[in-house]
Structure formats: structure tokens, C-alpha cells
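We give the entry.
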Amino acid sequence: MIPFTFHVRSCLYFLPAFIDTAVTKSPDDPASPEKSPHPHKSPCASGESPVEKKAPVARHKRESHINAELRRRFKIQSGLDQLKMMVPSPEGSPNHQGKESKAAILFRAADYCRHLKRERTQMQDESDLLRREIELLTSQIR
């Protein structure tokens, strides 16, 4: 069994090369690499460098990514705020007072949508019943 003790930030890009050499070659194979004095450590922990380091991300790309993430978060928060204002609070609870979690806002909105669907179905049933009654009364007049 090969122990996986990697430092995520510094050695993640070593993982495929390390697994490939560790899994495909057996310790008894003369072509396999020599055993490390510390078999529980990853190649990067022992100072070896089986793969070249990746070039650092350009500053403008990093800033662009950060700005895009901030815009995305702002849009989500704005949408949640609008949803919170549009969906009425349940009866008996204070209206929009205090901090309500995002999950609570979404669950309340989902419940309200289900309520509106039931209400719509009831109104359609009532409308159909009234149409049939109108047709019956119209046919009796003629």
C-alpha cells in the first residue's frame, strides 16, 4: 500500500507522475526506482522534483478571476435579497426582521411557490366549474 501524504498546495501537480511510477513498477522489479529512505513521504517532501513546476498565474489573470468571483457573489446576494423581499413571511412571524440564512430564504421561497401552485390549481378548477355552469345555463335559456 502506498501512503499518500501530500502537501496539497505545493505538491498537487506531482500526484499523477508519482502514482504512475509507484503503481506501474513493483519494488522487486529491477527497473523500478530505488526505495526512498522515507517511504511515507511524497517526492516533493523529500526534495525530489519529478515534474517541472508550473509557471505562476499572471497577476492580471488572478485579479480578473477575483473580480469575476466578487461579481458572481454580488449577483447571488442581490438575487437572495430580492427573493427575501418578494416572498411573504409565514403568518405569525415578524416580517423580514433579523438575519435569515440563505437556506431559510430558499426553503421559504420554495414553500411559497408550492402554495401558489396549489392556489392556481384550485382557481383553475373553480374556473372550469363556473364555465360548465355558464354553458348549462346558456343551453337552458335557448
In short: The radius of gyration is 32 Å.
